[in-house]
Amino acid sequence: MNDTAPFKITDELVAEHGLSGEEYKTLLEILAREPSLTELGIFSVMWSEHCSYKSSRFWLKTLPTTGPQVIQGPGENAGIVDLGDGYACVFKMESHNHPSYIEPYQGAATGVGGIMRDVFTMGARPVANLNALRFGAPDHPKTKHLVSGVVAGIGGYGNCVGVPTVGGEVNFDAGYNNNILVNAMCVGLARTDKIFYSAAKGVGHPVVYVGSKTGRDGIHGATMASAEFDDKSDEKRPTVQVGDPFTEKLLIEACLELMASDAIIAIQDMGAAGLTSSTAEMADKGGVGIALDLDKVPQRETNMTAYEMMLSESQERMLIVLKPGSEHEAETIFRKWDLDFAVIGKTTDTGRMIVTHKGNVEADLPVTVLANSAPMYERPWEATVPPQPILPEWVKAPDNGVLGGLKTLLASHHLASRRWVWEQYDHMVMGDTIVHPGADAAVVRVHGTDKGIAATCDVTPRYVTADPTMGTKQAVVETWRNLTAVGADPLAITDNMNFANPERPPIMGQFVGSCQGIAEACHVLEFPVVSGNVSLYNETNGIGIPPTPAIGAVGLIPDTKYVSDHALKRDGDVLIVIGAENGWLGQTVYQDIFAEKLEGAPPPVDLGDELKAGRLVRSLIREQVTSAVHDVSDGGLLVAIAEMALAGDKGVELFPYEGRQPTHAIWFGEDQGRYVISVQAEDAERILERSRLLDLPARLVARMSGDDALTLTNEGSVPLTELRQVHESWLPELMANP
Amino acid sequence: MKARIKITLKAGVLDPQGKAIEHALGALGFSGIKDVRQGKYIEVTLAETDEAKAQAQVEKMCEELLANMVIENYSFTLEKD
Amino acid sequence: MKARIKITLKAGVLDPQGKAIEHALGALGFSGIKDVRQGKYIEVTLAETDEAKAQAQVEKMCEELLANMVIENYSFTLEKD
Amino acid sequence: MLRASVIVFPGSNCDRDVKVALEKSTGFPVNMVWHGDTEVPASDVIVLPGGFSYGDYLRCGAMAAHSPIMRDVVAKAKSGVAVLGICNGFQVLCETGLLPGVLMRNASLKFMCRDVTLRVENADTTFTKCYRKDQVVRIPVAHGDGNYFADSNTLDELEGEDRVVFRYAHSDGTVDKAANPNGSQRNIAGITDASNRIVGLMPHPERLYELPLGGTDGRRMFESALVSMAEAMG
Ligand SMILES: Nc1ncnc2c1ncn2[C@@H]1O[C@H](COP(=O)(O)OP(=O)(O)O)[C@@H](O)[C@H]1O
Ligand SMILES: [Mg+2]
């Protein structure tokens, strides 16, 4: 494409830029003239779904985003919560779904790189990474290739940068066959008095480009992320961005070094839509104009046009507005780290973004309009009608008995161990990981202190599909429970809303329902949303993904002495299940595996009971009464107990259930709001009583048997080694052959 | 037959390895070095003796496994043993 | 001048990558494949125009940095631009 | 008294971890030395930390081995200063020739991060004095290229001179293929030079130096350095 050659903006060109005819008309009205090609490119990325949130903004505004712990809610590069004593936790989750489907290694790697930049741009050192991954059916021909590429890419990037990857989730479902999801989350640690924002306040300040050189990577990446796939996309293969984690590591160190000084007015990573959105947003937030001289931009390729430079998504680049006079100090730091450094413009009082290249003005646009004129759509939506609940009796008992059923479930694609994944991630680097992958939430220490940050991510798309509001409420609550189970005070969440085409009312209805679920849960749990990301159009040939609002959450461990995990460890302990047991089998893993279908309503969430149970469990942990805690989620009670036994390599004897529900429904039902705790036998009665006083059912469910098997009276016994074998071997075996 | 296959990054695709090698060569005192690019070199011995068939076989291997066609190109030579 | 450098593992040095590729090719249905070896291919553009000097320069690069002489061999060709 | 220096290469990422572990284990402050410097301050011990120096591009440790600081590290090592190379640091030591052999891609071709058990083969080095010979210790590995390779003459020589320091083993001390996480020759996890002062190993002792991290088996390596210095002082 050539900027200087005369050209005509045709309907095709407009459509290629992902703008509707309506939108282009609005653009003409705003400018009162035809845009240049560069200007068209700039608007197309600013107005893309990815940058503008045009379909989702209306509903995102309804989410609770405040609370005494919140330092920064949505709207900046990442959200920030207070950890006390001058520490702040900076975190966000972001999707790299389409790029990872096209090139799994680089797509996932650059997703990790991008989310880390969002975090360290605010002054935080990244201290933990997580990832939520959804792949197609295990036997789909593309699945293994995608799993191995994505996992290698996440590890390749995070390991090299030296940030531990401590948690996440992996699901397999045919609904993701042609649209996998790769959501990466980064958690950073900052000092509250050293937080950096993106507002480029003040006129005449140098605008500085640092990091890697600009190439023609991912041009149109931002619009690609918002466009539906079709069968041709396998061939189309747009320019893929390649990540350079080594440069990212240097960039982190250099930025943090510069941040320790007093030189920075504003800083922002160049993410989707690179130079365009970073300059527009920084100038708009600062209330200034900006003049850019593209001749100064460090370039990797020859003959790059203004259009290409403004739209390039080359990785590992940052934009900084410096206090005048500090250029030399800054340049010294970036040179020391062997990074490119160039003053490419300055802030102005014109209120315009003026881009010049080779002596020509390639774009001259009003900043506020550019940053704020994106359309906002209140798209028509149709609410999902949730199915009626089913009775536990309607789902048959396992043919192979309760213990056989347990083995089947532990070896299923839903529940099999993800060790094969997380052993490819360095989860210990930085020397502060105290609860490792495999637990309910991971915990990293606040370096040099006794505080800890707990982090987790979760969503159960089968629940959300059946009932978006209830299912999403459940996702929020499950992260809250995961944090509680390791002894943390839940602080806040980030969300990554992955949905299909919002222009279809039923899909938009899923999105709306999900937002309502988040809003309700966050409001009651005082667990606000501080950052997030929306990924729409995850569909191919009209077949969309299951609605997947991934929730990432962080909590504070005030003193790491009180950290808990789920490994049984104290001989002689008994196990108590806290929370109501109704044997809920609708939409469960059990139903999917044994009835080979999913039906009925998903398990309901009672936020009031969740609060009570969570508070009780947290006090028991802090009183050091418990020696292990696990929340009950996928697969139900027996799976939870088996996981505790396996983690600690300690056998248990289960007490027979004597209530009215079918036994298999009690062992495998997914009733919400439950925890299993391990306590000394002499404390049991007191704890049961304390729970009942809160109106929370509680039951003695098992005791440590002192042997190495899981035993159920009247059913027999299964050695832990056998359970471990089936649980651990599914994924390695799947991946063993290409 | 022996196939000697070169796999290189497509033009314009960032090559972090090449960049780092170029930098290291500079630091070692080599001057006038530029455009360092790193790729892979793979040797495969084939049972196939017919040149045209071997050619087709290697092409298929490259496209299906050896090269990542999204970012890489390949070229090869064949040699009778 | 452009140097095209091949770096290969010495005979007798185990090549886990080559072995894995051989295995994967087999699993993909390619038969009669053996002795797969993976090495590196590096392109370097030199300012030097004298062939002998360029030759010496590339040899030095390979010995000092590009190849690990404990396990690897190198070979290269030079080409005038 | 222990004067320890940790070299920081671009891309090192366990430099802070090992500094903290050394300081907590020995009680003495540690110097951080930039790769671009030309002299290591007077030290009893120099540590080359784990990480991805230069991104591990080209070959692990190859570019770091040519850093300006390494000339002085090699000189000091030859004049008797003890040197410990952990993971990437081990790779750098092999690339400089201070230790023989090379670390190749893991046989699985995958990065691997998990605890492994090691049998202590040589408890006489500067960094293993506080272990017993044949003791089994648990220390994490985290590497993609830890597959130790040397020709069989070199391997025989290493074994003959008692220069294998750690081998991957089962928790009962048996050494076999199943205990080998990365395909390394003869299950070698760490080796020393002939003087027992230059030690390289793939596992990360700094990751298990205190109980909150899950164990203290790694701490003994740093305590050994302190004990060795005390012995040397008489
Ligand atoms: N992609 C991943 N990366 C890192 N850890 C993972 C990943 N997937 C799963 N895990 C870890 O495996 C464990 C089990 O995951 P999951 O079944 O989602 O847990 P839960 O249902 O308790 O939230 C968790 O500790 C989780 O952090
Ligand atoms: Mg989960």
Explain this structure to me?
The complex is a heterotetramer, with one copy of chain A (738 residues), two copies of chain B (81 residues) and one copy of chain D (234 residues). In chain A, strands 8-10-7-11-9-12-13 form a seven-stranded mixed sheet. A seven-stranded mixed sheet of chain A has the order 23-25-22-26-24-27-28, with helices on both faces. In chain A, strand 19 and strand 20 form a beta hairpin. Chain A starts with 10 loop residues before the first helix and ends with a helix. Helix content of chain A is 36%, strand content 24%. Chain A has 738 residues and is of the alpha+beta class. Chain B is of the alpha+beta class and 81 residues long. Chain B has a single domain, classed as Mth169, Chain: A (2-Layer Sandwich), CATH 3.30.1280. In chain B, 35% of the residues lie in helices and 37% in strands. Chain B is built from two helices and three strands. A three-stranded antiparallel sheet of chain B has the order 2-1-3. Chain D has one domain: Class I glutamine amidotransferase (GATase) domain (Rossmann fold), CATH 3.40.50.880. Chain D is globular and about 45 Å long. The two termini of chain D are 12 Å apart. Chains in contact: A-B, A-D, B-C, B-D, C-D. Adenosine-5'-diphosphate (ADP) binds next to strand 4, strand 5 and helix 17 of chain A. The site of adenosine-5'-diphosphate (ADP) has 19 residues of chain A, from strand 4, strand 5 and helix 17.
List the helices and strands and how they pair.
The complex is a heterotetramer, with one copy of chain A (738 residues), two copies of chain B (81 residues) and one copy of chain D (234 residues).
Chain A: H1 11-16, H2 21-31, H3 37-46, H4 49-52, H5 57-60, E1 70-72, E2 79-84, E3 87-95, H6 97-102, H7 104-120, E4 125-135, H8 143-161, E5 165-172, E6 181-191, E7 206-211, H9 221-224, H10 233-236, H11 245-259, E8 264-269, H12 274-286, E9 289-293, H13 306-311, E10 317-322, H14 327-336, E11 340-348, E12 352-357, E13 360-366, H15 367-372, H16 401-410, H17 419-422, E14 433-435, E15 442-445, E16 452-458, H18 461-466, H19 468-485, E17 489-498, H20 505-525, E18 529-535, E19 539-540, E20 543-544, E21 548-557, E22 573-578, H21 589-595, H22 607-622, E23 626-631, H23 636-648, E24 652-654, H24 663-668, E25 675-680, H25 681-693, E26 698-704, E27 709-712, E28 716-719, H26 720-736
Parallel strand pairs in A: 4-5, 9-12, 17-18, 24-27
Antiparallel strand pairs in A: 1-2, 2-3, 3-6, 4-6, 7-10, 7-11, 8-10, 9-11, 12-13, 14-15, 15-16, 16-21, 17-21, 19-20, 22-25, 22-26, 23-25, 24-26, 27-28
Chain B: E1 2-9, H1 16-27, E2 33-46, H2 51-66, E3 72-79
Antiparallel strand pairs in B: 1-2, 1-3
Chain D: E1 4-8, H1 15-26, E2 30-34, E3 45-48, H2 68-78, E4 82-86, H3 88-96, E5 102-104, E6 112-120, E7 136-143, E8 147-149, H4 152-160, E9 164-168, E10 188-192, E11 198-201, H5 219-233
Parallel strand pairs in D: 1-2, 1-3, 3-4, 4-11
Antiparallel strand pairs in D: 5-8, 6-7, 6-9, 9-10, 10-11
Helix pairs in contact in D: 1-5
Adenosine-5'-diphosphate binds at residues 131, 133, 165, 167-170, 418, 421-422, 425, 437-440, 458, 482, 633-634 of chain A.
